[in-house]
Amino acid sequence: MRIRGLVAALVLVAVVGPAGVPAQAVSPATLLDAIRSEADYIIALRTGDGILTTVTSRNKVIPYQANFAAMGLARAYLLLRDSRYSTAAWRWLEWYRDNMYADGTMPDWIYTSSWIPSGVPDSTDAYAGTYLSAILETFTATGDLMRLRGLQTAVAMAVGAIELTADTDGLHFARPGWPFKYSMDEAEAYAGFRAAQEIARVLNDSSLEQRAKTNADRLLSASVKLIDPSTGLYLWALHQDGTRVPAPIEWLYPGASAQAWAVADRLATGTNAMNLMARAEAAQPYWDRPTATAQYADAQPICNFATPCYAPVNYWPRFALAYLAIGNTKRAMTGALNIHNTAKFLGRAFPYTPADAGQIILTLGDPEVLATAILL
């Protein structure tokens, strides 16, 4: 495990790269080059009919991952004005709209001789939440009101998909028939409701705006149930019968990651958010070192809650977005660049995904991060 740190070099910052990868000086040009590289990687996995696939064979789509990829493409367009990126983002959002189930949920997809639904989605609430966030991000970047209007019904359907699994306590089960409410999914559902609220405001749809706001406010109030009172940390999950399923922060997943998700999507804010990230950093100082190791409690093939074990850190750019949420732009920037450099060096091999690329773009393309690079 390598020692993490920042080394000043004149007015630039050297970002620690993986073994064999030279350190990279940070400047706005460095960030824009990384953004372009990640956006081009996402584009390369796109099919001819506009689907943002999530594997190099281009025969599988996990909509949750594609939603983050679309967010990244939208931000890349905003900064680089390459219309390939905005076109790809909008086309994905429209494909999602055209292939939603009647209840607003969305399955995974696989291509044989045509695209067909594949298995059970990991979480219908998080899929819908990230879809709503992707719509808002893409509209914000492009200002295309006509295409946004074309998604108005889909926005309402996605809100309905999250409502579909609402429990009486204001939280949501991960998918129909599944008795667990996950902190990470709830964070993404919350961000989705807030995105829907803003989209509806732009579209002058007061009914949908109020509906989304009511859902968001209710979820935020209920989210205190997701906090373990003995530790102050977000739980891994809350069972339908009220049983709490904690996740020690010594576990990268699902312990520290649950804290990062809550902060990144603003379930946790202010001093509480800063404290959570300080604890996550202390427990997981190598979250941005994909080739390091960390303790997991839910990772294939052998790690589980009964026998947690050590496994490669792999890719967690969501932590960088959490640092953005608390205003620590330097840690967000260096973490995202470290992940980008390692992934690129390793050929973006699995388990790297377009979702990771999209989150890196969102981090490095943040105005405060770009300003930090200019000021260093």
Please give a structural write-up:
The protein is mainly alpha-helical and 376 residues long. It has one domain: Alpha/alpha barrel (Glycosyltransferase), CATH 1.50.10. Helix content is 52%, strand content 9%. It is built from 14 helices and eleven strands. The strands form four sheets. The chain has a three-stranded antiparallel β-sheet with strand order 1-2-3. Strand 8 and strand 9 (244-245) form a beta hairpin. Helix 4 (124-142) packs antiparallel against helix 6. It is globular and about 50 Å long. Mean pLDDT is 92; it is low at 1-14 and 19-23.
Q: Mind describing the biggest β-sheet?
A: 3 strands, antiparallel
Strand order of the largest sheet: 1-2-3
Under CATH, the topology can be stated as Glycosyltransferase
SSE topology string: EEEHEHHEEHHHEHHEEHHEEHHHH
List keywords for this structure.
single chain, 376 residues, mainly alpha, Glycosyltransferase, 3-stranded antiparallel β-sheet, 14 helices, 11 strands, 52% helix, 9% strand, globular, disordered N terminus
Summarize the structure.
This protein is mainly α. Helices cover 52% and strands 9% of the residues.
Indicate the topology.
Layout: E1 7-9, E2 12-15, E3 24-25, H1 28-44, E4 60-61, H2 63-80, H3 83-99, E5 108-111, E6 115-118, H4 124-142, H5 145-149, H6 152-163, E7 180-182, H7 183-202, H8 206-222, E8 237-239, E9 244-245, H9 255-264, H10 270-283, E10 293-296, E11 309-312, H11 318-325, H12 329-345, H13 354-364, H14 367-375
Antiparallel strand pairs: 1-2, 2-3, 4-5, 5-6, 7-8, 8-9, 10-11
Helix pairs in contact: 1-2, 1-13, 2-3, 2-4, 2-13, 3-4, 4-6, 4-7, 6-7, 7-8, 7-9, 9-10, 9-11, 11-12, 11-13, 12-13, 12-14
